[in-house]
């Protein structure tokens, strides 16, 4: 009803009067656009449409019909007569075919019976119905529903829908420094705001108050109707400045030419409802907050580029005079290699692993807190403007139809232990697939080392890293779709009682599965790869002879950066272009193609599609969960591992600029119009965002401490360096190994000539690299330098986490959740509402007293005054 109350005013009054009057050239001009927006009488507007499947015999088609008083009885009798007359026909046909046909007809009659019963109940509630079974789309019948004004008013009371009163008060702007800054920014960015005229002044706001009845829901029988949707409003192309239609939304929101402008959030809310309006408002705030994060990330990256030539560890690795020979990276097939060949990788790692990385990690932790606080304040401001401040306090969550159906059938719900087993099994599948990719990297590296082609042998690292990252990306995208279906299946097995419980459980399961799917390869590269390798002569093997892979000489940070880059760009490009653009267009084309093929077999006289027929060919609205989930995973990649990839905010910003217009175009042109739903906040998504921002602090602390070389460089510079610089850092991270200590069958097949028995092995970013030399009494044991660095790493994690958490809590405490001006206006509105009601009650008392005075009659001398009554005399008795 709330959707209909807002949608009823979408048609301009002047256009509405002209169309009702049927005179003038305007009706002919708009006839194509309003075709299908009204009943056959041209007066009652189609507020809602239900579609159902109908069977056609030959080329016979039923014409549009209106509902009469005895339509249900007539259809029931016709259905029974057809069923009884169908048996003696064609006695010589195949009995199996006849049985199947009889079963199909029985099912069709049963569906028709349910529809007639359901439609009769709709009429009893006051709704007006009209059928169209002779539409241009064969096999589809349309039930058009119109809600009269009295029905809308009644349902508004049930929904406690806030309606504006005649009382208008002035909205005073705050005088604080923050409010003045906000107003200054608003004036500066005025050219970026959409050109949408608002009839309401920004300085005035009408008082609103809810009614006091409970909300009722319309339940549709499963399988009886195939789809249900309101119509897109396309009747305001001429009076575009005074209405809220899809054309205005397309020009000011969905067009890529306005990508630099703010979104018309108020217009989105009026057309799609508060729930969708809040999503796009949140997406806009998130995209806005990515701008400073992207700028700082680019500065950090440029700092790495500017200082790469002055980085002492990279200079030592690239110096050919340091003739350092490294141990093989795999058994037998791999040979010894020179450290100077890793010069390019070391320089590239410095772009992301430098002194500015720690500063950027602290900044992003505070950025996440500021983003959450900014959104809370923005959400509160929208609640005030949209009259949602009291929504949800007395709202009851109704039982789901499936829950009541299961209760009636006494079906047992899925036990919690069984649910956890199935959920754990799905997560284990992800781990197994990631382990398979690890085996791929190990085997492909050995195979490439055995190649005789010099180009292949020279680019082994780049080939293995890139192909493994692409394979991970493909697996992530495929499992995302599978896990989404699994999460919905598991939630349905639980049979949640209410819609809110169903949605929250579905979101939680989907988030867990997709989060594990997206971040398992990244977590492996950041914290596990190169940690469980062993040492030369005592390597760790899995699945027989597969030796665990090592990190490169400069650590695993570069590979982590490559995996993040490919995953972010790949998911955004493929999911946006293929899943959000390609698949909906393909489905729409297939539906239209199917309709055209059936039309060829069954010719139809009318070729022009009506509005409700065009909307039928659009894709169904499946909810906001996929949109939120995509952004939540992106938020995790921006915050969790930003220490290894400072350009993540920039890529997220560029993607979201396109994502906003892409989603807008999809909602306006590719999907059926969703049913408007009220919502006060973004629900469980806020809790997930807040949890990710807390986890991001810990993850970034571990990335800096254990994945990057920041702590080893710091420890060497202040504990072991003779001159307080990083000169000699590379040699400090290397240990000696006696080549005669290789296990039999693991030594290289192609040893290097003129090599001494003691060669150096790289210990960059590998915890167990710091080992005693072979001539020591503690041969190949972890050295004291290893324990000193480990202690420094753990201390850094504790200090970093507590300092950043303390700063975040201080920012959270410093910024109030509700803007001061909004809290003052809400308090003022309550006072004015009480005053208004007091005046109304006083006026009612005065009116009742006047009625009593008018009803009094002068008494004669012999008449006694009447005794007091227990109930006042009504006005009806006075007449």
Features:
alpha+beta; two-stranded antiparallel sheet; 15 strands; five-stranded antiparallel sheet; 879 residues
Task: Describe what this molecule looks like in 3D.
The protein is of the alpha+beta class. Among the domains are: 1-10 and 37-55 and 100-163 and 208-231, no CATH class; 262-595 and 622-712 and 794-814, no CATH class. It contains 28 helices and 15 strands. The strands form six sheets. Strands 2-3-4-1-7 form a five-stranded antiparallel β-sheet. It has a two-stranded antiparallel ribbon with strand order 5-6. Helix 11 runs antiparallel to helix 12 and helix 19 packs parallel to helix 22 (648-670). The longest helix has 45 residues, at 557-601. The two termini are 38 Å apart. 30% of the residues are buried. Mean pLDDT is 75; it is low at 1-33, 57-100, 209-217, 237-243, 753-768 and 865-879.
Strand content of the residues, in percent?
Answer: 5-15%
Give the strand order of the largest sheet, numbering strands 1, 2, ... along the chain.
Answer: 2-3-4-1-7
Helix fraction, binned, reads 55-70%
Low-confidence regions: 1-33, 57-100, 209-217, 237-243, 753-768, 865-879
Give the number of helices: 28
DSSP strand tally: 15
Structural class by sheet pairing and helices: alpha+beta
The description of the largest β-sheet is: 5 strands, antiparallel
Shape: elongated
- Which radius of gyration do the C-alpha atoms yield? 36 Å
The end-to-end distance, rounded to whole angstroms, is 38 Å
Oligomeric status of the shown chains? single chain
Mean pLDDT: 75
Subcellular location: Cell membrane; Membrane
Domain Anoctamin transmembrane: 268-829
GO molecular function, one term: intracellularly calcium-gated chloride channel activity
Domain Anoctamin dimerisation: 38-218, 219-265
